[in-house]
Amino acid sequence: MKAGIWLRVSTDEQDSSNQRPDIDRFAAAHGHQVERAYEVSASAWSGKSGEYSAQLKAALDAAWRGEFQVLIVWSLDRLTRHGAEDALRLIRLFRERGCTVVSVQESWLNGSSEVTDLLVAFAGWQARLESQRRSERIKAGNARRKAAGLPVGRQPGAKDRKARQRAGYVARYDKLRAAS
């Protein structure tokens, strides 16, 4: 069966080639022949970016033309992190085009459409809830420390005086802050 693959990373510092070996093994083990790869380098939260939208449209159009019958993702969150409704919407859009979305990491996604819909709804809801809870816990902890007059973050004079690696999200934040 012909397959397309979806690769997404959140930042320029990440590399989608980390996902590719697992996807290739999965495709080979299930008898899928990879026809096309769709690669996106954009945060899932800002996933409505031009690059994401263009790649998603290309994948949906190719599925509609019958270029592949399976879209393999490393994990469902590589396709979307906008919750259960968006995940279900995308899975249904592919399904309407004669294409099944399957996941290397989530074997439960690879079942019947009725069970998949139920489990995707639950997993999407749970992922969004956990993300919100994690954010709330961090904010509450920082607020508690600040209210108690305790330092928040690394303080000047800390024993560990090695220069910090300023990569990834921190470097991007600094760059955005400097530009504004």
Description:
- With 180 residues, the chain is an alpha/beta fold.
- It has a domain at 2-126: Rossmann fold, CATH 3.40.50.
- It is 49% helix and 14% strand.
- It is built from 6 helices and 4 strands; from the N terminus they run βαβαβααβαα.
- The chain has helices spanning 20-29, 50-64, 76-79, 83-96, 113-147, 169-179; strands spanning 2-9, 33-41, 70-73, 100-103.
- The protein has a 4-stranded parallel sheet, sandwiched between helices.
- The radius of gyration is 20 Å and the shape is elongated.
Helix content: 40-55%
Instruction: Kindly report the name of the CATH homologous superfamily of the domain at 2-126.
Output: Resolvase, N-terminal catalytic domain
**Got a strand count?**
4
Radius of gyration: 20 Å
Beta-strand portion reads 5-15%
Low-pLDDT segments: none
First-last Cα distance: 50 Å
Secondary-structure content class:
alpha/beta
Q: Could you state the oligomeric state of the chains shown? A: single chain
CATH topology group of the domain at 2-126: Rossmann fold
What coarse outline follows from CA principal-axis ratios? elongated
How do the helices and strands line up, and which of them pair or pack?
Blueprint (H helix, E strand, L loop, with lengths): L1 E8 L10 H10 L3 E9 L8 H15 L5 E4 L2 H4 L3 H14 L3 E4 L9 H35 L21 H11 L1
Parallel strand pairs: 1-2, 1-3, 3-4
Helix pairs in contact: 4-5
Report a brief summary of the structure.
The chain has a domain at 2-126: 3-Layer(aba) Sandwich (Rossmann fold), CATH 3.40.50.1390. Helix content is 49%, strand content 14%. The chain has helices at 20-29, 50-64, 76-79, 83-96, 113-147, 169-179; strands spanning 2-9, 33-41, 70-73, 100-103.
